[in-house]
């Protein structure tokens, strides 16, 4: 019998140690009045092929029973859906399909919990377990009135789809099916995002991976060919999450894609004959692909991360994330690694009369970091100074030291999102009780006379070699400095990759393909062979900047410390000899200038989204990042577009960084004429309102799809865009501004008028009249009322 599947999504949980159903009978139709009982001799409703089963199964030897859909011919890791948020039920509990609905009755309490309240009165005629893994309630015309695919837990199967607003929840652990700490969310804006949550609440904490399909994503599809992808409304693929090109024959495999308890979305395959994948221990499935590439590195925000507080996360391509405790720590619960680790020793006392620093040592762990959460930072200092500072500080649980930058960060308990990875440049110095230390770095109580004698002998030998060492050091010092990258103290705390000049010269084929040129630098296209051919934009600062490193320091420090989807991401830098080079992610769709003023006119929808994205990026710079930043050069050339045409603010080279207690600055002229605020020409203090003015001019250009000044206009009144646009607004002739636009803009004339009003407020001559970006953004979103703006004064004569 054929059943139409519309929107569907269903998730699988792993590590179940249960036998196959032996007393089950295949049902194609399950009639009203049917029921199943949770008992040791399992029974279930099977699909026609008997590949899927719906019924109770025991969780662990002493656990309860889970009502679930599972792969019936696989013994382990076979659950693809569970009822009532993974609740466990006592032996003797029943699931009943009656005229009153589809519900579970607990044998211990007698309570009923409805899986679906669809009843015979609603037209339900029968239930069925389908060969797709979907359990349905249908009417007599075989139309599904309820489907398990529409109420997913943590697994998606072939033929399932995930619609906007649908959410997958990771289970708490590999044996606990209740909601865990992670979600996969297809947002209403079309972006597929992995989030951490404020566990035990379901509320979202922060995203750590996404498809970046805002404005285009409509549905996630897992098709029969083994592809998982995001489509737009027309069915076109806009992002591929996983493909099946490496599978010899899709029909020979069972497949599932699961948001696992460690926050990784994995695509699994299992050979039906079990000839290619031999079941070993608890792992019979093979990991085919996964996102994100390394969850340990991806998650950096507040929360316990994949492994819990005070723990260390290590990535594993083929299986669950490896979690372990640092030296001197032990699991809080050996059966639940998500609870993290605790100290095995009595922490250092903060009693001034008894500092007890002599009772502690520092164990070293290379390539290890607990990002964020530091309460003190020192730079430049040597490693010994960092160690002594931590040992003498009762609040210090670990110190993080970077020898290249001579950075020392001190962190207290709890430690957040620990990870161990070869790409991490830090060394962790973990404070442990001296009696608990077993590291090669020694216990003070175990220092023997033999060790002291050995140290003395080594000292004598070193004196014999000191002349040679000194000579070699000073003779090679100059050449070494010329060859070694000298990192400035402007990238404190940021994990940016340091490139050599030769790496970047090779990546750009000798700085061959120029992408753009500015007043201080030239940007080239490059390809990183060390990063799977990833495209990058390589910004090479000119000789003037190499002599005065202002641009280099400003961009590395400011962009390295920012993180927002509407800002271009800085990947790394080169600071070698006279070479000052910055490496950014490559924006495939170029600048807004080319997009806006090219041959084809962008749609009104695209322009609206670009305006909103730019506003959100500026709001972040002005009010949400750790140090307030004035960009000072907002213009179409500095708004770049990624592969989904999301606006990304670029070029922080002339930005002005404000301290938290500052609201204004006085400085030399910055920015591009035509977009700069009047205060620049009046020697007045410059605030973030200068960026608001530039955004207003940019917004007018986005609305009207033309430059702010066009000298060759036949009608002189149209030369200055701000004057002409305000005249059209005042005279109720808005149609003149969009006469060459698409029907969408003409039909949305109200929103276009709203955007114009916001732009006019932004370009007021008096900075106090301009709104902040925290007000501009909700205005553009339609969440804040916009009053009638006064006529902005034309400053073209001054600012041209």
UniProtKB/TrEMBL annotation:
<keyword id="KW-0723">Serine/threonine-protein kinase</keyword>
<dbReference type="Pfam" id="PF00069">
    <property type="entry name" value="Pkinase"/>
</dbReference>
<dbReference type="InterPro" id="IPR036426">
    <property type="entry name" value="Bulb-type_lectin_dom_sf"/>
</dbReference>
<feature type="domain" description="Protein kinase">
    <location>
        <begin position="509"/>
        <end position="780"/>
    </location>
</feature>
<feature type="signal peptide">
    <location>
        <begin position="1"/>
        <end position="24"/>
    </location>
</feature>
<keyword id="KW-0472">Membrane</keyword>
<dbReference type="InterPro" id="IPR000719">
    <property type="entry name" value="Prot_kinase_dom"/>
</dbReference>
<keyword id="KW-1133">Transmembrane helix</keyword>
<dbReference type="GO" id="GO:0004674">
    <property type="term" value="F:protein serine/threonine kinase activity"/>
</dbReference>
<dbReference type="InterPro" id="IPR051343">
    <property type="entry name" value="G-type_lectin_kinases/EP1-like"/>
</dbReference>
<keyword id="KW-0325">Glycoprotein</keyword>
<keyword id="KW-0418">Kinase</keyword>
<comment type="similarity">
    <text>Belongs to the protein kinase superfamily. Ser/Thr protein kinase family.</text>
</comment>
<dbReference type="GO" id="GO:0030246">
    <property type="term" value="F:carbohydrate binding"/>
</dbReference>
<dbReference type="GO" id="GO:0016020">
    <property type="term" value="C:membrane"/>
</dbReference>
<keyword id="KW-0808">Transferase</keyword>
<keyword id="KW-0732">Signal</keyword>
<keyword id="KW-0675">Receptor</keyword>
<keyword id="KW-0245">EGF-like domain</keyword>
<keyword id="KW-1015">Disulfide bond</keyword>
<dbReference type="InterPro" id="IPR008271">
    <property type="entry name" value="Ser/Thr_kinase_AS"/>
</dbReference>
<keyword id="KW-0430">Lectin</keyword>
<dbReference type="InterPro" id="IPR001480">
    <property type="entry name" value="Bulb-type_lectin_dom"/>
</dbReference>
<dbReference type="Pfam" id="PF01453">
    <property type="entry name" value="B_lectin"/>
</dbReference>
<feature type="transmembrane region" description="Helical">
    <location>
        <begin position="447"/>
        <end position="474"/>
    </location>
</feature>
<keyword id="KW-0067">ATP-binding</keyword>
<dbReference type="InterPro" id="IPR011009">
    <property type="entry name" value="Kinase-like_dom_sf"/>
</dbReference>
<dbReference type="InterPro" id="IPR024171">
    <property type="entry name" value="SRK-like_kinase"/>
</dbReference>
<protein>
    <recommendedName>
        <fullName>Receptor-like serine/threonine-protein kinase</fullName>
        <ecNumber>2.7.11.1</ecNumber>
    </recommendedName>
</protein>
<keyword id="KW-0547">Nucleotide-binding</keyword>
<keyword id="KW-0812">Transmembrane</keyword>
<dbReference type="GO" id="GO:0005524">
    <property type="term" value="F:ATP binding"/>
</dbReference>
<dbReference type="InterPro" id="IPR017441">
    <property type="entry name" value="Protein_kinase_ATP_BS"/>
</dbReference>
<feature type="binding site">
    <location>
        <position position="539"/>
    </location>
    <ligand>
        <name>ATP</name>
    </ligand>
</feature>
<feature type="domain" description="Bulb-type lectin">
    <location>
        <begin position="21"/>
        <end position="150"/>
    </location>
</feature>
């Amino acid at each position: 019998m054929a059943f139409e599947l519309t929107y569907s999504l269903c998730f699988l949980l792993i590590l179940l140690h249960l036998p196959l159903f032996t007393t089950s009978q295949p049902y194609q139709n399950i009639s009203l009045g049917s029921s199943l009982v949770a008992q040791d001799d399992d029974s279930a409703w099977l699909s026609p092929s008997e590949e899927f089963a719906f019924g109770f199964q025991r969780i662990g030897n002493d656990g309860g029973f889970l009502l679930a859909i599972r792969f019936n011919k696989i013994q382990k890791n076979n659950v693809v859906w569970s009822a009532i948020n993974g609740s466990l039920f006592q032996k003797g509990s029943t699931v009943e399909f009656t005229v009153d609905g589809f519900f579970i009755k607990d044998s211990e309490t007698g309570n009923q919990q409805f899986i679906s309240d669809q009843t015979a009165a609603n037209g339900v005629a029968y239930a069925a377990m389908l060969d797709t893994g979907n359990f349905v309630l249908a009417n007599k015309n075989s139309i599904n009135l309820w489907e398990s695919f529409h109420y997913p837990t943590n697994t998606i199967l072939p033929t399932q789809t995930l619609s906007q607003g649908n959410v997958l929840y990771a289970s708490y652990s590999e044996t606990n099916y209740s909601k865990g700490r992670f979600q996969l969310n297809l947002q209403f804006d079309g972006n597929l995002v992995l989030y951490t949550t404020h566990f035990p609440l379901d509320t979202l904490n922060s995203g750590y991976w996404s498809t970046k399909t805002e404005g285009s994503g409509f549905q996630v599809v897992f098709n029969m060919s083994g592809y998982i992808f995001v489509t737009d409304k027309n069915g076109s693929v806009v992002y591929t999450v996983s493909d099946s090109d490496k599978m010899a024959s899709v029909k020979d495999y069972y497949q599932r894609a699961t948001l696992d308890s460690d926050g990784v979305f994995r695509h699994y395959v299992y050979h039906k004959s079990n000839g290619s994948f031999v079941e070993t221990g608890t792992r019979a499935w093979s990991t085919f692909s996964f996102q994100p590439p390394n969850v340990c590195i991806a998650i950096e925000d507040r929360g316990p991360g994949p492994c819990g507080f005070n723990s260390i996360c290590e990535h594993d391509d083929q299986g669950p994330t490896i979690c372990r405790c640092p030296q001197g720590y032990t699991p809080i619960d050996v059966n639940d690694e998500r609870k993290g680790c605790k100290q095995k020793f009595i922490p250092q006392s903060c009693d001034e009369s008894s500092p007890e620093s002599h009772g502690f040592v520092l164990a070293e762990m290379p390539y290890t970091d607990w990002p964020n959460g530091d309460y003190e930072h020192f730079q430049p200092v040597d490693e010994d100074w960092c160690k002594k500072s931590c040992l003498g500080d009762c609040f210090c649980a670990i110190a993080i030291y970077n020898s290249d930058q001579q950075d020392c960060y001190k962190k207290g308990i709890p430690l957040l999102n620990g990870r161990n990875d070869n790409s991490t440049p830090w060394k962790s110095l973990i404070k442990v009780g001296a009696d608990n230390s077993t590291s090669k770095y020694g216990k003070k109580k175990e220092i023997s006379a033999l060790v002291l004698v050995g140290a003395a002998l080594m000292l004598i030998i070193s004196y014999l070699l000191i002349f040679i060492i000194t000579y070699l050091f000073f003779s090679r010092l100059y050449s070494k400095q010329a060859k070694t990258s000298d990192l400035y103290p402007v990238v404190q705390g940021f994990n940016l990759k340091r490139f050599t000049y030769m790496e970047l010269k090779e990546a750009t084929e000798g700085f061959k393909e120029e992408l753009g040129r500015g007043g201080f630098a030239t940007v080239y296209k490059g390809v990183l062979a060390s990063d799977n051919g990833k495209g990058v934009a390589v910004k090479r600062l000119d000789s003037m900047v190499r002599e005065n490193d202002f641009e280099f320091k400003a961009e590395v420090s400011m962009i390295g410390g920012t993180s927002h989807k509407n800002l271009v991401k800085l990947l790394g830098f080169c600071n070698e000899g006279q070479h000052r080079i910055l490496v950014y992610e490559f924006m495939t769709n170029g600048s807004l200038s080319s997009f806006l003023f090219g041959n084809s006119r962008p749609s009104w929808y695209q322009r609206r989204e670009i305006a909103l994205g730019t506003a959100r990026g500026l709001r972040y710079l002005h009010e949400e990042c750790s140090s307030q930043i004035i960009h000072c050069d907002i213009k179409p050339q500095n708004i770049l577009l990624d592969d989904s045409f999301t606006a990304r603010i670029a070029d922080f080279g002339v930005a002005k960084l404000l301290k938290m207690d500052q609201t204004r600055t006085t400085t030399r002229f910055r920015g591009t004429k035509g977009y700069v605020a009047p205060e620049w020409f009046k020697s007045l203090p410059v605030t973030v309102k200068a960026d608001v003015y530039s955004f207003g001019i940019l917004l007018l250009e986005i609305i009207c799809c033309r430059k702010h000044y066009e000298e060759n206009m036949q009608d002189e009144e149209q030369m200055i865009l701000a004057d002409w646009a305000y005249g059209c607004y005042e005279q109720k002739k808005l149609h003149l501004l969009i006469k060459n636009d698409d029907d969408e803009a003409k039909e949305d004339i109200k929103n276009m008028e709203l955007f114009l009003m916001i732009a006019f407020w932004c370009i007021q001559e008096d900075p106090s009249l301009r709104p902040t970006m925290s007000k501009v953004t909700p205005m553009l979103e339609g969440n804040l009322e916009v009053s009638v703006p006064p006529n902005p004064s034309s400053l073209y004569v001054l600012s041209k």
